[in-house]
Amino acid sequence: MLINIGHQCPFQTTQIALSLPLLDHFSLQSKISTLPLIMSSLSAKIGPSILNADLSQLHEESQRLLDNGADYLHLDVMDGTFVPNLTFGHPVVKCLRNKIKDAFFETHMMVQAPQQWIEPMADAGVNQYTFHIEPVMDSVVDICRKVQEAGMKVGLAIKPGTPVETVKEFIPLADMILIMTVEPGFGGQKFMNDMMPKVHWLRENYPNLDIEVDGGVGPGTIDACAKAGANMIVAGTAIIRADDQAAVIRQLKHSVECAIKH
């Protein structure tokens, strides 16, 4: 007997072969009920990056993204040292928080000294503090503790050139792992599909972990991210510059939700 799994999702329908003589009605139903993957406890979340938004109208553009269905805002903070670009810091984030009271703010700290900005970002109203482990390998544990003590969730990020095994020892301290799918520092780069094995490895080994991807993600690349196991999606240019932001956000979310369910 063949059972088809899949309903109007962008993934190939899976056929599960069951030998009926070996299964009574109860055991058959039991197997079917457990077919949804271990990802079923996760939720799909879309977090637009405001890096390519009009920063002179940051409040208006951010509110429009939320009104169009964004689950959170991804705020890219760059120091000009860890990455060559320079964006904004906690004063801008605090001003945005004063305008937008309830949205979930994640700051992606592309900075050389993430420990320096923990308290200022907490004071600015940040919900999740995601920092790169590369420049602070000897102090990741201490930084995670300080982020938690400041009342924020912990996100750990790795660049494309960093092996995923590097972050393994710190996963118990984190609420989320970010796999960069472009080199950090600039928006609008081409998606690096060869980062998907990192996502897949994390999902296989940590089925309940929130896994985020960031860089070059849009309608043409979302299925690869979803299939690999990412459930938190950062998209900048694809959403910011879309004629219909809500439609793009719905498409991205639908792809991830299908992967979670099937």
UniProtKB/TrEMBL annotation:
The active site is at residues 76, 214. Its EC number is 5.1.3.1. It catalyses: D-ribulose 5-phosphate = D-xylulose 5-phosphate. CDD domains: RPE. A divalent metal cation binds at residues 74, 76, 108, 214. Its cofactor is Mn(2+); Co(2+); Fe(2+); a divalent metal cation. Binds 1 divalent metal cation per subunit. One of its GO terms (molecular function) is D-ribulose-phosphate 3-epimerase activity. Keywords: Carbohydrate metabolism, Cobalt, Isomerase, Manganese, Metal-binding, Zinc. One of its GO terms (biological process) is carbohydrate metabolic process. Substrate binds at residues 49, 108, 185-188, 216, 236-237. Pathway: Carbohydrate degradation; pentose phosphate pathway; D-xylulose 5-phosphate from D-ribulose 5-phosphate (non-oxidative stage): step 1/1. It is an enzyme of class 5 (isomerase). Belongs to the ribulose-phosphate 3-epimerase family. PANTHER family: RIBULOSE-5-PHOSPHATE-3-EPIMERASE. This is Ribulose-phosphate 3-epimerase. It comes from Aedes aegypti.
